[in-house]
Amino acid sequence: MRLPSIVLLVLLGLLMGSRGAKAAESYDSCTGYITSVPATIHTSGTWCLKQDVSTAITSGVAIEVAADNVTIDCNGFRLDGLAAGTASRALGIHEINHYVLTVRHCTIRGFYRGILSEGGGGTDVIEDNHVDGSLLVGIEEDTTGSTVRHNLVTNTGGTTATASPYTAYGIYQHGNTEVLDNDVSGLSVAKNSNASVVGIMADDNGGGSIDGNTVRGMVPDGTGSVGGILVQLPWQLAVRKNEVHGGGFSGNGIACSGSGSSFPAVRVYGNVISGFASAAIAGCGVGAGNDTSP
Amino acid sequence: MRVVVLLLSLLVLTMLSHRAHAAESYAGCTGFVPSLPYTISTPGIWCLNKTLNTQATSGISLTIASDNVTLDCNGFAISGNNKLRTGLMTAIYGKDRHITTVRHCTVFSFDKGLDLQSTGAGGGHVVEDNNVYSMTMFGLRVEGDGSVVRHNLVSRVGASNSTNPTGTTWGIYTVGSVNLSDNTVDGIIARQGSNGSAYGIYTWKNPDGTIEGNRVHNLYASGTGNIFGIANIASGRVSVLDNDLFDYTHIGTGVSCADSSGRLKGNIINGFALAVLRCGKAKDNDISP
Fold first, then answer.
1. Is residue B288 part of a domain?
2. Partner A contacted by B49 (CB < 8 A)
3. Is A163 exposed, middle or buried (0-12, 13-18, 19+ CB in 10 A)?
């Protein structure tokens, strides 16, 4: 009885494994490998992980990208900063003032910010990553013309390095960025912090789309609040077909704010918004097809 | 024994989880593009295994001169140098070819990114998952019935367009029955002082294509030029579905069609002086000034 079970499992695994092999995936396109961290990438190309890497640094950067046209492909391996604890301010992957950073297939755990791209570069693509246990922000994309898509951002919050009350964000973006098809779940903060949580923050976005994302599992502390998708200083933006769940806490599902009371050029269309104690949609232009419920 | 079973299961699953996400393979590659300029003359999957750059001042960097060619850049870049230009320069070019596939390419600093032309022959192209930016005329031009343009990022077209003769710029330009889906087009800027127009998506003689789920924003015309989010010229029964279209300057046209047989549904069209020109507005469009 036991032997057939083992054989069956192994055969099943080999069968599934052979499907993976047919996908013709390998390390062929890797320019080089990141075998330990902290590390700095100085040349363009595809830099890969072929094993899990970890660090206990409490400040600085695990992988610093210091060149244009760099792809970090973790091949599903883990970049782990959990050992640094909740007071860490270390960043997982960071670049400033470089164009076309691509980060894909990474599992990133336990950093203050999992991914931070900032400065005068742009046209980044952050896709197909699992960013878990970030202490303040899961993914922060602050460059123009960039895309954040198909990422799983889980269990964000809990820093003890930032003065309270702070706000933890699943995804934070500044400038013209597309935020597409991401799953943000599990945002919570340290006890007695009175901190707030926000699934997706779009800051100063002058023509982008926030489409097809899900936000759920948000738990603030004390006087803190929740925000599903918050749009700050908006120009024109599409907020379409997102599913946002608030857990009954105080806060808005989708809200626009800035120098004015309403922002009709932010089009909120076809979203499912539930479980927010405050208005489901506030300050934005409300299009058709939104499903709002308490 | 149950522990052994559990361990074996975990081992297999662990191996699978790593294999499933591995980077691009060269296993299927017929050959590699060694340097630029280069001409692909035989069918097959032609790959990049490094970033390629050209300092040429005009012409074509990579020519596809055979049917049934796949160009897979594996995420590597093909780059030019707009500062050196004395004439028009095209990154990837083909004419009257059948079934050209271009994928996973980053292309920057040319006048024309991808230019698959047709004089009535060719088609069936697939252009997908490319990142094209810093062009002076257009990002992607795909001509030929049965073609598909999807999942591409096209940005910063016309930002430094000294060699663009008309000053008009296009994000994506197609001819014939072509489907376009899930593309991002951002920052299409006509040359300053040219009176040129800026087109996010331009289709010519598309009788029955679907234009779905694209995002177009930050279009800027020059002088008397105009702005079009999606322009369907001489088109037929095109379906324009679920696109996000924005005009910050409030002078442009959101979507144009040849007549009401072009159908619009579920689009967000914001900021255009004229949201819809001639198309049939089927339902559920969100149109606002």
1. no
2. yes
3. exposed
